[in-house]
């Protein structure tokens, strides 16, 4: 898992560096009707055919990523509904008896994606506000448990197979909180001055709507029915024991071979 993250970071860094080197002036890239990535490919190859062929590679990657994202989001929706955190939780917490997957949660996820796509067709500003708000909300959702854990002296985590050294863990946690704080403020800034109704960053509006709906849902339904996250501690203990046993077996094998 860690190796996959490292490989993705390395290859992604090289890809971005190459794009920046061949992008040329920034304004034509941003304003291109063909999209920034296709415009950069055309600037680099000066060939429409070559640009389309190069564009197919990230499109194929996006296709596989879409399957993974839909799978993950539908399972997260199911888990939240299972814990009673959504309206109509009983509906979205059902697992199809034959397919053995949360079909209702998958339907909900797909419907929301279609709705967002329709919003993009109607208003790109509204769509960009929703996407920007999702980035801010994602960062805040990462920072909240880290901040709570730090405020409690990093004593909230139980036994786990992967543990960072304590000084390094504190640095990583505090750096993560600082990064989310800075990026959240920056993402709420308008793109240019002076600010008008047409160039305003409506991310703060979309984010405020999410906060209002979440607060309303909590007081109306969530605080009465939400019980979670539901974790089977026995399974966690068994997994930890299996990991610990595998580590001991590996260490004994190395000692024997030595």
Summed up, the helix count is 10
Average predicted confidence as pLDDT: 82
Class derived from helix and strand content: mainly alpha
Written as H for each helix and E for each strand, in order along the chain, the element string is HHHHHHHHHH
The dominant shape is globular
Quaternary structure of the protein: single chain
Q: Measured on Cα atoms, how large is the radius of gyration?
A: 23 Å
Instruction: Assign a percent range to the helix content.
Output: over 70%
Low-confidence stretches: none
> What is the straight-line distance between the termini?
28 Å
What's the β-strand tally? 0
How is the main sheet built?
none
Residues in β-strands, percent = under 5%
Architecture overview:
There is one protein chain. Helix 7 packs antiparallel against helix 8 and helix 7 crosses helix 9. With 258 residues, the protein is mostly helical. The chain is built from 10 helices and no strands. The chain is globular.
């Amino acid at each position: 898992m860690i190796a996959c993250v490292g490989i993705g970071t390395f290859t992604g860094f090289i890809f971005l560096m190459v794009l920046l080197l061949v992008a040329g002036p920034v304004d034509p890239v941003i304003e291109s009707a063909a999209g920034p990535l296709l415009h950069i490919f055309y600037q680099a190859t000066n060939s429409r055919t070559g640009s389309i062929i190069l564009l197919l590679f990230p499109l194929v990657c996006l296709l596989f990523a879409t399957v993974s994202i839909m799978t993950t989001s539908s399972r997260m929706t199911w888990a939240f509904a299972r814990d009673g955190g959504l309206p109509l939780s009983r509906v979205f917490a059902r697992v199809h008896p034959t397919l053995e997957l949360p079909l209702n949660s998958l339907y909900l996820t797909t419907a929301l994606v279609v709705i967002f796509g329709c919003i993009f067709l109607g208003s790109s500003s509204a769509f960009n506000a929703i996407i920007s708000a999702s980035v801010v909300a994602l960062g805040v959702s990462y920072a909240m448990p880290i901040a709570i854990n730090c405020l409690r002296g990093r004593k909230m985590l139980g036994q786990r197979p992967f543990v960072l050294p304590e000084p390094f863990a504190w640095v990583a946690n505090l750096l993560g909180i600082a990064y989310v704080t800075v990026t959240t403020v920056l993402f709420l800034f308008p793109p240019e001055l002076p600010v008008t109704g047409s160039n305003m960053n409506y991310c703060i509006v979309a984010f405020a709507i999410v906060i209002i709906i979440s607060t309303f849902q909590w007081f109306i339904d969530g605080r009465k029915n939400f019980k979670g996250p539901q974790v089977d501690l026995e399974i966690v203990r068994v997994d930890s024991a299996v990991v610990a046993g595998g580590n001991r077996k590996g260490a004994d094998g190395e000692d024997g071979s030595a």
